[in-house]
Amino acid sequence: MKYNFYAGPAILAQEVMQEASRAVVEFNGMGFSILEISHRSKEFIAVMDEAVSLAKELLNVPEEYEVLFLAGGASLQFAMAPMNLLDASMKAAYTDTGTWASKAIKDGKLYGQVDVIACSKDANYSYIPRGYEIDPSYRFLHITSNNTIFGTQYQSFPETSVPLVSDMSSDIFSRVIDVNKFDLIYAGAQKNMGPAGTTLVIVKKSALGKVNRQIPAMMNYQNHIDSASMYNTPPVFPVYVSMLTLRWIKRNGGIAGIQKKNEAKAAALYGEIERNSLFYTPTNHEDKSKMNVCFLLHDKEKEKQFLANCKSAGCIGLEGHRSVGGFRASIYNAMTLEGVNQLIGVMQDFEKVNG
Amino acid sequence: MKYNFYAGPAILAQEVMQEASRAVVEFNGMGFSILEISHRSKEFIAVMDEAVSLAKELLNVPEEYEVLFLAGGASLQFAMAPMNLLDASMKAAYTDTGTWASKAIKDGKLYGQVDVIACSKDANYSYIPRGYEIDPSYRFLHITSNNTIFGTQYQSFPETSVPLVSDMSSDIFSRVIDVNKFDLIYAGAQKNMGPAGTTLVIVKKSALGKVNRQIPAMMNYQNHIDSASMYNTPPVFPVYVSMLTLRWIKRNGGIAGIQKKNEAKAAALYGEIERNSLFYTPTNHEDKSKMNVCFLLHDKEKEKQFLANCKSAGCIGLEGHRSVGGFRASIYNAMTLEGVNQLIGVMQDFEKVNG
């Protein structure tokens, strides 16, 4: 048995992959693979419709929002979001909480005035900034809800009258959120939703149509809304597997049920890091991510040995990102408590030998 | 047995889908699905490297070009191409040979002066324009090599000193081409290369870096070149299946071998349309696509019956696009001569009853 702790693309539910595998040979009794059917076939339109309606249901998306499945990864949204929401004469606020936030800021600056109103770079992004002022005249406040690389996460969202825009790539569908606070949410699929290749966009309809610039067709949310995510050929298979994953979430208690399991997994792993004399986490206590758990050995010399032990125990993908070092355990929705306990067992055994 | 004549997403080789299906359960002995492995894993880097190197080998891509696998569909390239190649002070020539060419023109106009130097709209795009002048001062001439909807195809490319830029979404890897004529070739995967979700880009290195505008990170070819198509998480599975398809092309005689088969299939089907008293093609003789064969019944009343007969014989996806009507048989690389002969059989039987 192997346990997948990769940061992304990441673990998906076994039953989702079994069904996806069968659909690659034959989908829905059509006599064809899901890979070779027209996106205009009634069978695929049903897949897209179900994916959209499950996303709406699971996240309790209000009527005045649209849900889209686009191609291109969340990184494309770093440009699309300001292109569609921020006129050259407007200003937007961004918080800089790590690599992805920084990239969003860089693209945002191409489309209007961007003020970085809070930043945690001074401590290697190990915390989520607090106590900053948010001028109510900002068009939006852009945040990265979970920082995959640095293992931090907004446990609650900034209280402000300014609409929020959030990259939720690494924690969408992992916890209950109030969509009403947001003008725009976007999330690459490859953590909690599906395989790499599609991006979920939730956008408030009334937030669109207020910029003067001409937007290329594929970058214009309104085009995708008008054609129900079929403006061009969508990434059929990634959307299909996302739909299967959303069904799996629904079967497993919905977001509230998943959130409870995620909290239990994170509590167990952070608890062991705290208890175990060999390890520590560089992450600020209140901001610890329930998706990506960063931790280090006090004795760096032993890193290779620990990783080797993890591997022997079937725990794969635990190398920390080079920006933080040490280890990172990504414990997304599909990671079981059993998998987390397997890792905890390796940590405990390591302490017995090296403590 | 069913035969897939969909225009795209379209038929792929059976053996490719069998292998892809297995990889969705377990890839390469890793103990994980191809859907849940890191794009930074050595196993996926090997997939990307092989996909790039097979594309280079099969198309005989010269040293001074880069090959990229991007996300987002060819429609995104309608904007990316001029954004990267056309300064606001420059002018580019476009030919308008149908729906996709028209969309490319619309986005092109956002980034510089665009002159439509030839257009076949006067005859419902049933031919490829000829005999127009190409001013040598144009930055590039943009063409759509094969027009999926209207069933026309450039049998040879315009002779000009102006570098060509081509959308080859529906005939890439179907015939031998001379890449040297092009500054840029782009092609959505979902006809001859793989499933929907990735786009091949072949770009001449010296064509880049000559525009002054600031380009969003994901729209900048140079960023993707500098990171070997891993600037962000690539569409892992669509790239993997594309790699499998390129291997399959190589095993089947390479592009020259595939071209020979494609010519035989097209000759058989157009031959039958010409011979059969019930059918005709609206497409100009010299411009007939070897990928998408458009044809109609003289007696429109019998369309539904013919489609029903096709379906009974296992021939699926033959409804013509609403812009042309009638029927369209897409006979991409993976369509067998047996499949084409099955359709020809239905046409012959239909003539026996209705002729």
Provide an overview of this structure:
2 copies of one chain form a homodimer. Chain A has 355 residues and is of the alpha/beta class. Chain A folds into 2 domains: 3-10 and 254-354, Aspartate Aminotransferase, domain 1; 14-251, Type I PLP-dependent aspartate aminotransferase-like (Major domain) (Aspartate Aminotransferase, domain 2, 3-Layer(aba) Sandwich), CATH 3.40.640.10. The first copy, chain A, contains 9 helices and 14 strands. In chain A, the strands form 4 sheets. Chain A has a 7-stranded mixed sheet, with helices on both faces. A 3-stranded antiparallel sheet of chain A has the order 11-12-14, covered by helices on one side. In chain A, a hairpin with a 4-residue loop joins strand 6 (146-147) and strand 7 (152-153). Chain A is globular, with a radius of gyration of 21 Å. The relative contact order of chain A is 0.17. The mean pLDDT of chain A is 97. The interface between A and B is large, with 62 and 62 residues.
How are the SSEs ordered, and which strands pair?
Two copies of one chain form a homodimer.
Chain A: E1 3-4, H1 14-25, H2 42-59, E2 65-70, H3 74-85, E3 91-96, H4 99-108, E4 113-119, E5 141-144, E6 146-147, E7 152-153, E8 164-167, E9 182-188, E10 199-204, H5 221-226, H6 236-251, H7 254-275, E11 279-280, E12 292-297, H8 303-312, E13 315-316, E14 327-330, H9 337-354
Parallel strand pairs in A: 1-13, 3-4, 3-5, 5-8, 8-9
Antiparallel strand pairs in A: 2-10, 6-7, 9-10, 11-12, 12-14
Helix pairs in contact in A: 1-6, 2-6, 3-4, 7-9
